[in-house]
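Tokens for chain A. Residues wanted.
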């Protein structure tokens, strides 16, 4: 039988089935999975539509053709909401999906009507001349008749779908490839023409089979082309991304190597830093473990670095560190490690040492390298270094522990003085544990109210009146007993807790002075020592101002004592802070004058009221040394600068007579009173705060007071 048209329909069934299969495969792992699944369903239903058309066209009689026709109607109804869902999934908007749900609901109602209607949803009546014979002899059942109202509504909906699809196509084809876009538009045009021809066929104007499926077939081909192009582009893009990733990985490797170098290196000297030293130590440990040799660790700490930075500037300090690093490197082997741990601290790891004598020789070689002066900023500097040493496997067995052991030994060396060498001993761990316990107790001392103040009088050299009492902090601990300041002040500075302790001292001293003023000693003032952190770091002005306001004192009632070494740590900052304190009206004094490294130029501009002559010079006055000359010079300098001068450490009548003769203003020492508790200080003031009787000691021209020191405590 000659049936080319019907055969073409059945062939298209297979093409659509392949399209459905391809779209389903593309849906797996695709970013457009929902779109692919909808398109796969469309191809499947178009395949069924074409199959039903072929069955209708080749039916043996009218009834069989009408049954097939209802199936054709069913699949054509299903295709409309599916196409709508396809466009909505591409547009990916909530409003588009809502309209698709409405279309699907209407299509479901039409399917019910199609099932119960005699001729399906298309026709109210059907012409009986449905069997059409074509010129080549093929006969096809093609129905025409009076269109139903439901069919006309579906036509309107189909027209709306076509318009909606065309509007969306205009948006997306601007971004597509030209050939594919043209193919896509040709497919839409064919579907539009096929729809018009189907309408003419239904009305009986012409006798043509339903061609809409072939129009969509071209659209399926367009989709396959788009998919193929997308797959090809994706593979090209994946290859490009892969190549870029490989390129980026290589760059990252280089960057990581640079980063590791920066992270493990010291920027100033170019040596490894602490992290770099630990990496090298691990390798040396393995090497010495295999060779059964010794690994010596030496940590050198430049003792005078702070002085160089303070007196010559940080540039000079940096130059010194660079030269130290160069000398150490020049005196080690290539297999050894030289690293900078921070500040003026360097580590040298000497590997493959066979005996303890070899360890000693390495140290002597390194110490000798640092012994000769350094030429820094056009001048020669001689330095000393404190050294802590540890030996593997004699002392310890792990890299971090080995470094910690050397640092413990360094701490022990620095405790013994400058320029000392100490080797790690297991007992150092116990000392460190004791220090940790001591630090923990110190942290809690202020909260537990374990601190208290003692007061040592400063008396006038001219009339014997008590002018000032210096507040001296003490720590009474239930386990450690009475702890003197020289044991905990520097430690508190290192721990960073000196500021609250210093604030407590100022507040407590002001409170006690207010009490003495209330007792009638209104011309009395109190002196408080300041630490470096208090002056240069903490909010000292606010602390002093609040204490004066709280206890209704004037600025002149409080004197703050600062040591020379504290001032010279940062002279510019010190002058700035002292100026701020001077605005509050408080008196300022330089403590331990003559023992530091101060410059007369700075002394001239420092906003201070008095100098406090260090006790070491006073003790040497009557022993035939240079103490008398130094005291005379310092007192003369103070007079020329219009500064008050206080001599501390006065213990003998001879020292008293000499200082008075030199013109010293105030005197402080055991000759008058040792540091007194508050009760003892009250007794001292009540009995001694009066002019001395000159007749008692006509040789001195004044009378020594009765030393009222019950309850005294050791001096600072």
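Reply:
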């Amino acid at each position: 039988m000659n049936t080319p048209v019907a055969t073409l329909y059945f062939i298209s069934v297979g093409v659509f089935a392949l399209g459905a299969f391809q779209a389903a495969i593309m849906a797996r792992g695709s970013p457009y999975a929902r779109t692919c699944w909808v398109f796969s369903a469309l191809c499947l239903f178009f395949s069924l539509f074409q199959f039903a058309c072929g069955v209708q066209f080749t039916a043996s009689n009218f009834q069989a053709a009408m049954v097939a026709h209802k199936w054709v109607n069913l699949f054509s109804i299903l295709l409309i909401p599916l196409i709508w869902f396809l466009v909505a999934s591409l547009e990916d908007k909530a409003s588009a999906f809502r309209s698709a749900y409405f279309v699907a609901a209407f299509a479901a109602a039409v399917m019910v009507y199609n099932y119960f209607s005699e001729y399906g949803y298309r026709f109210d009546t059907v012409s009986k001349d449905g069997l059409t014979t074509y010129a080549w002899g093929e006969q096809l059942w093609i129905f025409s008749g009076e269109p139903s109202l439901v069919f006309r509504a579906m036509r309107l909906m189909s027209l709306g779908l076509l318009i909606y699809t065309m509007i969306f196509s205009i948006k997306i084809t601007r971004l597509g490839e030209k050939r594919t876009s043209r193919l896509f538009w040709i497919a839409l045009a064919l579907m539009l023409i096929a729809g018009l021809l189907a309408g003419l066929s239904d009305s009986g104007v012409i006798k043509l089979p339903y061609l809409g499926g072939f129009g969509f077939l071209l659209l399926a081909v367009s989709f396959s082309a788009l998919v193929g192009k997308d797959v090809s582009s994706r593979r090209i893009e994946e290859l490009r991304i892969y190549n870029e990733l490989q390129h980026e990985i290589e760059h990252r490797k280089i960057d990581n190597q640079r980063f590791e170098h920066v992270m493990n290196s010291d920027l100033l000297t170019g040596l490894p830093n602490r992290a770099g030293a630990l990496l090298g130590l691990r390798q040396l440990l393995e090497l010495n473990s295999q060779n059964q040799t010794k690994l010596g660790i030496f940590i050198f700490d430049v003792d005078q670095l702070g002085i160089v930075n303070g007196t010559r500037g940080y540039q000079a300090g940096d130059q010194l560190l660079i030269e130290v690093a160069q000398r150490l490197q020049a005196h080690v082997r290539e297999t050894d490690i030289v690293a900078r741990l921070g500040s003026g601290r360097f580590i040298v790891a000497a590997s493959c040492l066979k005996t303890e004598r070899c360890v000693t020789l390495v140290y002597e070689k390194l110490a000798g390298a640092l012994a000769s002066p350094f030429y820094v900023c056009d001048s020669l500097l001689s330095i000393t270094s404190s050294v802590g040493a540890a030996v593997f496997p004699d002392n310890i067995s792990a890299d971090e522990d080995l470094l910690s052991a050397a640092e413990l030994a360094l701490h022990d060396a620095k405790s013994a003085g400058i320029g000392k060498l100490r080797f790690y001993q297991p007992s150092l761990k116990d000392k460190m544990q004791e220090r940790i316990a001591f630090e923990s107790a110190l942290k809690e001392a202020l909260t537990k109210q374990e601190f208290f103040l003692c007061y040592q009088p400063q008396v006038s050299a001219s009339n014997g009146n008590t002018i000032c009492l210096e507040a001296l902090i003490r720590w009474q601990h239930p386990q450690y007993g009475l702890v003197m300041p020289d044991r905990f002040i520097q430690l508190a500075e290192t721990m960073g807790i000196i500021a609250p302790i210093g604030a407590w001292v100022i507040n407590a001293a002001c409170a006690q002075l207010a009490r003495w003023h209330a007792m009638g000693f209104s011309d009395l003032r109190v002196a408080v020592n300041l630490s470096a952190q208090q002056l240069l770091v903490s909010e000292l002005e606010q602390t002093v101002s609040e204490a004066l306001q709280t206890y209704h004192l004037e600025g002149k009632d409080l004197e703050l004592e600062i040591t020379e070494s504290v001032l010279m740590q940062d002279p510019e900052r010190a002058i700035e802070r002292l100026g701020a304190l001077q605005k509050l009206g408080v008196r300022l004094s330089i403590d331990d004058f003559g023992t530091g490294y101060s410059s007369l130029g700075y002394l001239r501009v420092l906003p201070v009221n008095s100098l406090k002559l260090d006790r070491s010079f006073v003790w040497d006055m009557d022993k035939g040394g240079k103490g008398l000359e130094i005291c005379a010079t310092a007192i003369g300098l103070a007079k020329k600068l219009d500064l008050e001068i206080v001599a501390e450490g006065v213990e003998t009548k001879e020292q008293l007579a000499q200082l008075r003769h030199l013109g010293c203003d105030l005197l402080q020492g055991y000759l008058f009173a040792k540091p007194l508790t508050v009760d003892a200080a009250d007794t001292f003031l009540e009995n001694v705060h009066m002019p001395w009787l000159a007749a008692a000691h006509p040789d001195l021209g004044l009378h020594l007071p009765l030393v009222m020191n019950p309850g005294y405590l050791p001096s600072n």
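The CA atoms of residues 634 and 640 lie 10 Å apart. Confidence is low (pLDDT under 50) at residues 690-716.
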